[in-house]
Amino acid sequence: MSWAKGNKSRQKIESACKLDEALTLFSNNLRRQLLESLSKNTTEKTEAVALEDIEWKTEYTESVLLELHHTHLPKLSTVGYIEWEEEAGEVRRGPNFDEIEPLTVLVDEHRDKLPGSPS
User: Measured between alpha carbons, how far is residue 8 from residues 2, 5, 44 in Å?
Assistant: First the structure.
């Protein structure tokens, strides 16, 4: 196998792994709601949104807040999809948000065709 073919194969594998990671992160309802909210309601990386101001589809209870703080916000922050200001209780688009935004738009535009959508 030539170097060019090997390099191209490696790039395809890396791209597939990146997509798998994005889909895994997007598979959780709370993370998905947060990413969709940032996609719809912010246009700049500097624009922060308070967690309590997000239109959550689930009741924003203390247990949801704990789950966000201990699981979901750290995961999204680690991959750079969000920047999280823990003390202020705010999030904003992270440096890698552009990688996940097309998925949020795609799901939003086709929500009525997806499993579990209201008829």
Answer: 10, 5, 34
Token pair in block for residue 24 = 């895994």
CA-based Rg of the chain, rounded to a whole angstrom?
16
The pTM assigned to this predicted structure is: 0.79
Rounded CA gap, 89 and 74, in Å?
Answer: 13
Residue of 117 and 81 predicted with greater confidence: 81
Per residue in 34-70, pLDDT (tens digit) is 999 999 888 777 789 999 888 888 888 889 889 999 9
For 116, residues 6+ apart whose C-beta sits below 8 A from its C-beta are none
Q: CB atoms < 10 A from the CB of 108, how many?
A: 11
Are 97 and 47 a contacting pair, CB within 8 Å? no
3-class state of residue 47 by DSSP: coil
Residues with Cβ within 8 Å of 27's Cβ and at least 6 positions away in sequence, in order, are: none
Phi, psi of 16 (to 5 degrees): -65, -40
Instruction: Specify the residue for token string 């709601």.
Output: 33
Instruction: Please name the amino acid found at residue 54.
Output: I
